[in-house]
Amino acid sequence: MKDVELNNGIKMPILGFGVFQMTDQQECERSILDAIEVGYRMIDTAASYLNEETVGRAIIKSGVAREELFITTKLWVQDAGYDKTKSAFEKSLKRLHLDYFDLYLIHQPYGDVFGSWKAMEELYEQDKVRAIGISNFQPDRVMDFIVHNKVIPAINQIETHPFNQQTETQKFLIQNNVQMESWGPFAEGKNNIFTNEILQPISEKYNKSIAQVILRWLTQRNIIVIPKSVRRERIAENFDIFDFELSPDDMNRISMLDMNKSSFFDHRDPEIIKWITSRKLDI
After folding, report:
1. Residues tagged active-site
2. What is the mean pLDDT of residues 188-210?
3. pLDDT score of 32
4. pLDDT-based confidence at 113, cuts 50/70/90?
5. 141 to each of 79, 116, 176, 182, 195, how far by Cα in Å?
6. DSSP code, position 94
7. Which fold has domain 3-278?
8. Domain ranges (residues) in the chain
9. Of 187, 216, 232, 250, which is least packed with CB atoms within 10 Å of its CB?
10. CB neighbour list of residue 149: distance below 8 Å, 6 or more residues apart
11. Full-prediction pTM beyond 0.90?
């Protein structure tokens, strides 16, 4: 497994296991145990996924030493602000049965994110979290954070897949020493991605699945990625991407798929902001 060194010197696996939309707790726990058995050591969850407790149980059942795992969770919008962030952080720790997080992210760029960041900087200084970062922040908001805070975000986790490649955003993040992490690497199957006429011949060339080609394409761009599956064979397949390398020509062919826009929604759309902010978690 390749590691990526974050801007504070912490090393993070470039490939992890995501648990978004895993609402069946039994299935979620089994999938995490399968992933850990396959070899994954980075697990990405969030308060808003409503499965932190299940992730915590799976971690305990796995028997893998805590220091061998890299655990990420995220702060939801309703807990933005200094005091609320401190409280939400402790609740997430308790639900996950952990003493510290490896990475804690502001999930959405709304509400009192500066108050949240101040609290997260303190938690970071107290060694309760090894790295802190953000998610779904556009470059202007990232720069706003960089110039107005003491700690530069270690990560920006954003939608990144063949139809929304975030090439210019990645250049900006590299220039400002912020690591890019992909969510939604398969675009949730949109635009018939798994039968795509450009990706299909590339997958046949390397005797790999289209999913493996996409994950390899991302990791060759040095982008951290967290694919999700509840099927053990797919979980194993997604992990098996380090025994081949895409040629420059194939990387260029994949770049032709870029539509340079979200396949889901625009985080700057006022109605989307209203919709996301209105979601309240009963936790």
Report:
1. 49
2. 95
3. 98
4. very high
5. 19, 14, 13, 18, 36
6. H
7. TIM Barrel (3.20.20)
8. 3-278
9. 232
10. 114, 117, 118, 121
11. yes
